[in-house]
């Protein structure tokens, strides 16, 4: 992950009553292994956080997108861009937070794609060992407290990609007002609800498996392929692409699942930001006992399938058509 440019500015604030004070770095630090490790750790943490996804809508003078445009079009250098960004960021800190931190801004590349990441990092006291082998206070960055961070896929944005989700930012459920103000400051128009889209995708997949009347082993293999791919995309901070997913689900008929979704009109976008919480709920329960074989997608528990713990019974609300028809023929 080559870092093209990076810089860190300091924002001092100790209480709600105190105004934030900005300490600007005047030059970029030399690229170091430590900075690379820090950025990798931030990305790993960022990918696990709930996020809003969208695109730029605010192009007014003095806006974030104006500063970013000037930078990528070489109208300003990276340090000048970072100063503008940090100075604009102060108002958000003063209005929403009682503490400051370190504002990291990094322009880097992964494969053929370039990104810009910004994150407010907080510090906590830790303990280390010095050269004299003594325990000493050692300040540490608290990446677990990552609440203000954004990432822009610069390649998609500048290449006129049809994607409407090249911009994302952390949207913690416990800090709704802060997230909303941050999104406004970025000039982001949210394009997709990741939770709703992920849930709809999984519903479409369940319907597809049922329509294909697949054997249990085949259904489990396809479920594992979907979940593994979606989780891998989530770890990388990338959206699920329906074309790629369809190919993984059925290599012999790579367009089958994609065409099924389109023909059934689920209203899904071509790219879906994965919601890891929803994905974790999606696995198949399967078992066999006393001549009865049962399997179903785990997310159906509590809706399509209920478990009566007191009587140790499963209640299936929607009987598969094939089973219902066979029972009817048996009674005739």
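Sequence proposed for the structure above (332 residues):
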């Amino acid at each position: 992950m080559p870092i093209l440019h990076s810089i860190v500015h300091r924002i001092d604030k100790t209480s709600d009553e105190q105004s934030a004070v900005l300490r600007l770095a005047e030059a970029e630090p030399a690229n170091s292994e430590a900075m690379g490790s820090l950025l990798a750790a931030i990305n790993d943490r960022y990918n696990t956080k709930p996020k809003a996804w969208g695109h730029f809508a605010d192009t007014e003078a003095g806006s974030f997108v104006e500063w970013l445009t000037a930078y990528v079009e070489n109208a300003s250098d990276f340090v000048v861009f970072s100063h503008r960004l940090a100075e604009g960021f102060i108002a958000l800190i003063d209005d929403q937070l009682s503490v400051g931190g370190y504002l990291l801004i990094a322009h880097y590349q992964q494969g053929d794609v370039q990104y810009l990441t910004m994150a407010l990092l907080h510090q906590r006291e830790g303990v280390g060992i010095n050269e004299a082998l003594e325990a000493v206070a050692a300040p540490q960055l608290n990446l677990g407290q990552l609440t203000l961070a954004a990432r822009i896929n610069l390649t998609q944005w500048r290449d006129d990609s049809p994607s409407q989700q090249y911009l994302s930012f952390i949207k913690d459920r416990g800090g709704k007002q802060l997230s909303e103000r941050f999104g406004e400051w970025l000039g982001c128009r949210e394009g997709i609800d990741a939770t709703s889209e992920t849930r709809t995708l999984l519903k479409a997949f369940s319907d597809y498996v049922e329509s294909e009347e697949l054997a249990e082993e085949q259904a489990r293999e396809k479920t594992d392929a979907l979940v593994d791919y979606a989780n891998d995309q989530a770890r990388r901070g990338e959206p699920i692409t329906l074309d790629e997913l369809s190919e993984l689900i059925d290599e012999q008929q790579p367009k089958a699942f994609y065409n099924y979704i389109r023909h059934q009109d689920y209203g899904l976008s071509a790219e879906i930001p994965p919601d890891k919480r929803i994905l974790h709920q999606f696995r198949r329960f399967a078992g066999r006992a006393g001549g009865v074989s049962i399997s179903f997608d785990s997310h159906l528990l509590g809706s399509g399938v209920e478990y009566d713990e007191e009587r140790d019974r499963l209640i299936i609300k929607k009987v598969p058509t094939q089973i219902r028809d066979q029972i009817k023929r048996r009674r005739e």
